Amino acid sequence: MNKKYYITTPIYYPSANFHIGHCYTTIIADAIARYKRLTGFDVFFLTGTDEHGQKIENKAKDAGVTPQEYVDEIVDNAKNLWSSLGITYDKFIRTTDDYHEQAVQKIFEKLYNQGDIYKGKYTGLYCTPCESFWTETQLVDGKCPDCGREVHEVEEESYFFKLSKYQDRLVEYLESHPEFIQPESRKNEMINNFIKPGLEDLCVSRTTFTWGVPVTFDPKHVVYVWIDALTNYITALGYASDNDELYQKYWPANLHLVGKEIVRFHTIIWPALLMALDIPLPDKVFGHGWLIIDGGKISKSTGNYKDPREYIEEYGVDAVRYFALREVPFGNDGNFSEESLINRTNADLANTLGNLVNRTISMSHKYFEGRIENKKVATEFDESLINLVNNLTNVVEEKMSNLRIADALDEIFEVLRRCNKYIDETTPWILAKDENEKDKLQTVLYNLIESIRCASVLLQAFIPTTAEKIFAQLNTELNNYESASFKENNVFELNKPEILFARIDIK
Ligand code: ME8
């Protein structure tokens, strides 16, 4: 097998208060990773935490602990949240991991030695009590956005990365690789709003705080933000270490999945760094929209969130996953509210899916004690159902290859809706009244069960817990991708029906 797929999420700022918006990138990445595994790829799925910087240093100070103690304590919060969402990452990188810090130092040295990093002076607006630099636009009424006090201009010795040198190559690359930035609208924004007006060299070190990776040849400097953060995508694979087997195998990344506010760093700074390092560029950066609540981005500072684990406990992990995957259209923003989560769960998971599975299995028990085989007595409605089922892997693949996750899910639900309609068309309860129609009735139930089975093969990528429950009720192990086409000769010894999603009342 030679098909590899390397997918990454951003590394998260460690937090004790993740909200549902944070789960969004990771749920999508997980669905893509699971889908790729299902369809036969050798997948490497990376996530992790971005642990350095002034903010962490300040917070640790407030808490009276060292920055390392501070991050060690809250990093488990991310791991715990991902585990409650069923996230199947292959590696969790922490930017405080030794191998990462050492690789960052080597990368910084290399760029310095070849002249892509040079020493200069950084001028910025500084708040002394908060020990933080701010840009003009971050200020609130001209004052520090954190404490409201005066800021003043200071000059600081810093190292700079020669981003400007890569401007022409970047434009050329982005224009000749229209697939690189998705959705395409973001590509035009990057070229026209950011690159063409002129790229400035990038400040890549700081001396005003110490919580970072020290610059080996000038240790009063620590590496600042992007060379530390972005390089995680290669250091996680062992780049610039003694063992770079994973790097050889999986780089370049097939997909960096990121929120739209960090597309800029991933499509300008990151490619320029890779060009400087003479490393191939990733295939694709997809910038997704945000989950919005009450018209504003869900965020820690506005406090308009609940811990996602509360929703998982109340409505089930797959209700939360399904919502994130289904509600937000390709690349756009989507609205989150508990009410819309409930409505989605009721409409799609409880009604369309749950009810279908329950009705079908219940009837199979009622009329045939749960043993169903194909009696091959056709009805006029079979062909359109079976055609839809047999086309499903193709249409889902088409949507998934364009990262249209919500549309891919909708195609699966199209089959489920068709099944529900097929029940109305074939009216099994009427067939059941006629002894002569027993074989037709069993054929109808067979067609339904086989269709549900095929749809569930694909559902494994999106709502894996539910798919597993369906396979358990169907009592079959035929759940691999190759089996996702309508088979004529299966025999089902069904288990008892169990409710997959109970309807939720809006309080
Ligand atoms: O940006 N809706 O980390 P982060 C959708 N450390 N996505 C959201 C969201 C919302 N309401 N809120 C956050 C960082 N996210 C850097 C990245 S990568 C080398 C360094 C997403 O913890 C956000 O868009 O602020 C991003 O993709 C991810 O959560 C991590 O954000």
Explain what the structure shows:
The chain has 507 residues and is an alpha/beta fold. It has a domain at 338-493: Isoleucyl-tRNA Synthetase, Domain 1 (Orthogonal Bundle). 48% of the residues lie in helices and 15% in strands. The protein has helices spanning 20-38, 54-63, 67-84, 98-113, 167-176, 184-195, 226-229, 232-235, 245-250, 263-277, 308-315, 317-327, 338-368, 382-401, 405-426, 428-431, 438-459, 464-474; strands at 4-12, 42-49, 91-94, 117-127, 132-134, 152-161, 181-182, 202-203, 205-206, 222-223, 255-259, 285-288, 291-293, 296-297, 334-335, 371-373, 491-493. The strands form 5 sheets. The chain has a 6-stranded parallel β-sheet, sandwiched between helices. A 4-stranded antiparallel β-sheet has the order 5-4-6-8. Helix 6 (184-195) packs across helix 10 and helix 13 (338-368) runs parallel beside helix 15 (405-426). The longest helix has 31 residues, at 338-368. It is elongated. The model has no long low-confidence stretch (mean pLDDT 94).
Quick overview of this protein structure:
This protein has a domain at 338-493: Isoleucyl-tRNA Synthetase, Domain 1, CATH 1.10.730.10.
How do the helices and strands line up, and which of them pair or pack?
Layout: E1 4-12, H1 20-38, E2 42-49, H2 54-63, H3 67-84, E3 91-94, H4 98-113, E4 117-127, E5 132-134, E6 152-161, H5 167-176, E7 181-182, H6 184-195, E8 202-203, E9 205-206, E10 222-223, H7 226-229, H8 232-235, H9 245-250, E11 255-259, H10 263-277, E12 285-288, E13 291-293, E14 296-297, H11 308-315, H12 317-327, E15 334-335, H13 338-368, E16 371-373, H14 382-401, H15 405-426, H16 428-431, H17 438-459, H18 464-474, E17 491-493
Parallel strand pairs: 1-2, 1-11, 2-3, 7-12, 11-12, 13-15
Antiparallel strand pairs: 4-5, 4-6, 6-8, 9-10, 13-14, 16-17
Helix pairs in contact: 2-3, 6-10, 11-12, 12-13, 13-15, 13-17, 14-15, 14-17, 15-17, 17-18
The structure holds ligand ME8.
The site of ligand ME8 has 19 residues, from β1, α1 and β11.
